[in-house]
Specification:
Helix content of chain B: 55-70%
Distance between the termini of chain B: 31 Å
Helix content of chain A: over 70%
Number of strands of chain A: 2
CATH class of chain B: Mainly Alpha
Strand order of the largest sheet of chain B: 1-2
Shape of chain B: globular
Largest sheet of chain B: 2 strands, antiparallel
CATH architecture of chain B: Up-down Bundle
CATH topology of chain B: Formate dehydrogenase/DMSO reductase fold
Oligomer: heterodimer
Number of strands of chain B: 2
Order of helices and strands of chain A: HHHHHHHHHHHHHHHHEEHH
Number of domains of chain B: 1
Distance between the termini of chain A: 7 Å
């Protein structure tokens, strides 16, 4: 509570509308970088003489795709949670989450690209190669689920659900900017209830399909939750970073204040710990039971050059942000919070790399697999989807008001304080 | 404090209780008591009845200070008798040995572990409400947190009973703790059973501290009023004087010299948020460790990585159900409680039950799917036996009660009709007990079909469990009688008057038919 602020007086056009020039320029630049990287990757794949190079570039593209898919899904879940729990403090913040979640459509195109690349130069998922899985009795059991047709049908279902949810939720919010009808919030709230249920199932199975089935022998019931932890953390970091940059560029003064950043920092801290909790539980239970068919997945990541990645993932994704985000003054310091967000996003990418890339191996002899170390192909492969995504996101942010203009809970959000 | 005889105030309220129309705020089919407003531009009031600070104190203290309601003594005697049954059964167990239970080989863990996990799980709601909802600044929690925290303490006491007695030889109970025994052998530090002792021990300690610390200002109120009551009475008999003096002394000692000074409040607020921060990871850690008891094993059906968050969700689920099981009757029986525990509070809790129930359902589905997907024949067979084998009925009860029954709360009618909610919470309590039963009886069909069998409890198993319900209810009824059931100071904090920028309060007794616009 505190002084009630009248939204109409607090919100002025210059604070909530991006000057189009600069933002579009940065957006175009990012897209150009992404496009160039993507072209290089595709050319490399097309001209590569060996399957190893092709496969590595494909896996790197996949890393990039999963890296940008995660904050999109995370933004979807946060918008739905904010609506579901009638969050007052977050009313101002919701728009940027909505912008990120609307990136689900570009993500669909990136996925179509992935599917095409995988078909021509792959397959990325080795079980799609009939030769590779011939005589694999474990694959035979999974075949009703893991077959190419059903795989893409499922992906279609996921994207349909996400696109409908994202489009509708954002549309209600944009419409409210015009009409100011509070019942649009009620509509979004209603949609969020079953939306969350659909989200849980689709995200869980999408992570099984796209990440876990890279090693089609391995399985973990926790895997969907692990990916969810990554979506939540990365979307919070991305949206906080967007707000920090906007503030730094002189927008949203007196609207999004240090009080909001403080709370975003708390949530980021919470989800950093949540990621560690899920990651640790998954690792710990598999390590303790020590069943070979489960430990193989971790053994791959603790040998052959990947052990450093595993170590730095734990340090970078958990230990460092844990201590940065712990003290209150740090969360209230825009520079330190911004550093923490950028740091978390980088290590979110590393996590996706850690999930995907060790699986990129080539069979050099009978059951002898060779690993491919990090190379510049990984950089271009990842940069392609990430650059395009971020560029389009810039355009999206510039396309409308930076905060909801007539949300019924705006006064609460404007008056938000942590000490009352 | 105004010179009003607290008994007179209580009598006035009790008088209202006999006339429901006077107590009930206007029942509007849409908003029930005015708090179920759907309009997003309106925040529902947290306290109804146009109460001021004084009437909050009078009502909540009145529940303990006035003569006990008629149902209290019979309920207490019944609960205490039931608790006595547990005592007798434990005595029989100790004098005879675990043979009196239905354990067999391979089902060496039976009802004792089921009861332990069930009770520990129930405790989680209190910690979630008091710690996590506090951190999320959910102000509606103030009317239920004391209640839920008390439930946590008593549930953990019941839970702790079972590991203590489960080997039958109670003189070895100290083996639970990491103390080297007479042969200089340390317990196995790599065993999750040992971690359980640390996890549950920490949990109990922190929960107790949190509960007690939050209660200190309210106990001080009780102390002051106990003294004042003696002064206010025109005539006072020797018995009343003795009771009053004991109450004043007891509450006085327990309130640790609290004098409502500004400095005290400042320290209190600081300690409260610190304890909330410390208790938050405990919500996750305790039941994660309990889930490790099963999941670190290589037993099919036990070893699955989703167990930690799935157990935590299940614990919160069962805990909220138990809070509602206790709260709904209390809300109906204590006059004026509906002003604090509004229809919206109940509705919010129903929603949490649906969310956590669906999370549990998600875990069931994932478990089943991965059991098949793993292509491990033992794993998939374990799940088929679970669902279709000799214990299919337990699996059915579990799935029906935990996943399907809470889905009724999608309907507004269901989550705003107290008697119906009460029935659903009973279903959930039963379902969550069966969830643990289903997990434990997975053992009955282990790797060796030659030793497959059917595990059935004996009457001693059953009565010990029923007795633990008696222990729980006895403690809870004592709490309701002698301690502040609602957090008086916290409820006052969420009254509109507590906000220095608020509008003047509505006239007393004004019916709240609509929310307070913000």
């Amino acid at each position: 509570m505190g002084h009630i602020v009248d939204p109409d007086r607090a919100i002025s056009e210059s604070k909530v509308r991006l000057a189009p020039g600069a933002a579009r320029m940065v957006g175009a630049l990012l897209m150009a970088v992404g496009a160039v990287a993507l072209v290089i990757t595709v050319v490399m794949m097309a001209t590569a003489k060996d399957a190893a190079t092709q496969y590595q570039a494909l896996a790197a593209y996949h890393v990039g795709f999963m890296t940008v898919m995660a904050p999109t899904l995370g933004a979807l879940v946060f918008v739905m949670i904010f609506q579901q729990v009638n969050a007052g403090w977050a009313a101002l913040l919701r728009r940027q989450f909505e912008n990120v979640l609307s990136m689900v459509v570009p993500c669909l195109f990136l996925f179509v690209g992935l599917g095409l690349l995988s078909t021509f130069f792959g397959p990325l998922w080795k079980w799609m190669d009939p030769e590779f899985v011939s005589g694999d009795v474990m694959y035979e059991v999974k075949k009703p689920f893991l077959n190419t047709t059903f795989f893409y049908v499922r992906a279609g279902v996921y994207f349909t659900i996400w696109t409908v949810l994202a489009t509708m939720l954002r549309r209600y919010s944009i419409q409210q900017d015009e009409t100011g009808d509070p019942w649009l919030t009620a509509k979004a709230r209603r949609m969020s209830s079953y939306g969350l249920l659909l989200f849980a199932l689709t995200t869980g199975f999408a992570s099984f399909d796209w990440l876990m089935s890279l090693d089609h022998h391995w399985f973990s019931t926790m895997f969907g939750v692990y990916y969810f932890a990554e979506t939540a953390g990365s979307s919070l970091a991305l949206c906080t970073l967007i707000f920090l940059v906007l503030r730094q560029r002189g927008y949203l003064q007196d609207l999004v204040t240090v009080e909001h950043f403080h709370d975003l920092g708390k949530l980021l801290f919470g989800f950093t710990v949540f990621w560690a909790y899920i990651g640790f539980s998954q690792y710990f239970l598999i390590w303790y039971a020590n069943i070979p068919e489960e430990t193989a997945w971790f053994a791959l990541r603790k040998n052959g050059g990947w052990e450093a990645y595993t170590f730095w993932l734990v340090v970078g994704r958990f230990v460092v942000p844990f201590f940065i985000l712990m003290p209150r003054p740090f969360r209230r310091n825009k520079l330190i919070l911004g550093f923490a967000c950028a740091w978390i996003l980088f290590f979110h990418g590393l996590d996706m790399f850690w999930l995907v890339r060790p699986e990129a191996t080539v069979e050099v002899g009978a059951h002898i697999f060779e690993r491919m170390p990090f190379s510049w192909l990984d950089i271009t492969g990842i940069l392609g989807p990430v650059g395009i995504y971020l560029g389009l996101l810039m355009f999206r942010i510039a396309s409308g008001p930076l905060v909801p203009l007539k949300d019924p809970r705006l006064p609460e959000s404007l008056a938000h304080k942590n000490y009352v | 404090m105004s010179p009003v005889d607290p008994d007179a105030y209580g009598a006035q309220n009790l008088g209202k209780a006999s006339d429901p129309a006077a107590v009930d705020v206007v029942r509007d089919p849409e908003t029930i008591d005015g708090t179920l407003v759907d309009d997003p531009s309106v925040r529902a009031p947290l306290v109804l009845g146009g109460r001021d600070f004084h009437s909050v104190t009078e009502t909540i203290c009145g529940w303990s200070e006035n003569k006990a309601p008629g149902w209290w003594l019979p309920a207490f005697m019944f609960s205490a008798a039931t608790a006595g049954v547990a005592g007798l059964m434990i005595l029989y167990l100790v004098t005879t040995g675990v043979g009196v239970w239905g354990l067999n080989n391979p089902v060496a863990w039976g009802w004792a572990i089921v009861n332990f996990v069930w009770w520990v799980g129930i405790g989680h709601a209190g910690t979630l409400i008091s710690a996590i909802l506090c951190i999320f600044k959910q102000k509606w929690r103030t009317s239920i947190n004391r209640f839920a925290e008390a439930m946590t303490i008593f549930a953990v006491i019941c839970a702790g009973t079972f590991p203590g007695i489960h080997v039958g030889r109670i003189w070895f109970a100290w083996f639970l703790f990491p103390i080297p025994n007479s042969n200089s052998i340390w317990p196995n530090f790599k065993s999750p059973l040992l971690w359980d002792v640390f996890a549950v021990g920490t949990y109990f300690t922190v929960s107790l501290l949190f509960w007690y610390m939050g209660m200190i200002p309210d106990i001080a109120t009780f102390r002051d009023r106990a003294i004042k009551r003696m002064d206010l009475r025109k005539t006072i008999g020797p018995f009343q004087l003795a009771v009053g003096k004991i109450a004043a002394f007891g509450y006085g000692v327990a309130s640790l010299g609290w004098r409502f000074s500004h400095r005290h409040w400042q320290n209190y607020e600081k300690a409260y948020i610190l304890l909330a921060g410390i208790a938050t990871p405990l919500v996750l850690s305790v039941h994660s460790v309990v889930s490790f008891d099963f999941a670190v094993a290589v037993v099919p059906g036990w070893h699955t990585t989703i167990f930690p968050p799935y157990f935590v969700a299940g614990a919160i689920f069962s805990g909220f159900a138990m809070v509602l099981t206790l709260l709904i009757p209390a809300r109906a029986l204590y006059p004026g409680m509906k002003d604090f525990v509004t229809a919206r509070t109940i509705e919010n809790m129903c929603k949490i039950i649906t969310v956590t129930g669906s999370m549990v359902g998600f875990a069931y589905i994932m478990e089943f799917f991965i059991a098949w997907y793993s292509a491990s024949s033992y794993e998939s067979e374990a799940f088929i036996i679970r669902a279709l084998g000799p214990y299919w009925w337990a699996y059915f009860i579990m799935f029906f009660c935990n996943v399907l029954s809470p889905q009724v709360f999608w309907l507004k009618w269901a989550r705003s009709t107290p008697w119906f909610i009460f029935i659903v919470t009973i279903f959930v309590n039963i379902g969550m007990w069966f969830e643990r039963f289903v997990i434990v009886t997975t053992l009955s069909s282990d790797f060796m079909p030659s030793s497959w069998g059917y595990y059935a409890p004996t009457y001693v198993d059953v009565l010990t469990f029923v007795g633990s319900l008696g222990i729980f209810m006895t403690l809870f009824l004592l709490f309701m009688r002698f301690l502040p059931m609602l957090a008086i100071s916290e409820v006052k904090n969420v009254l509109p008057q507590a906000n220095p920028h608020a509008a003047p309060p509505p006239p007393a007794g004004a019916p709240a038919t609509n929310g307070e616009a913000r």
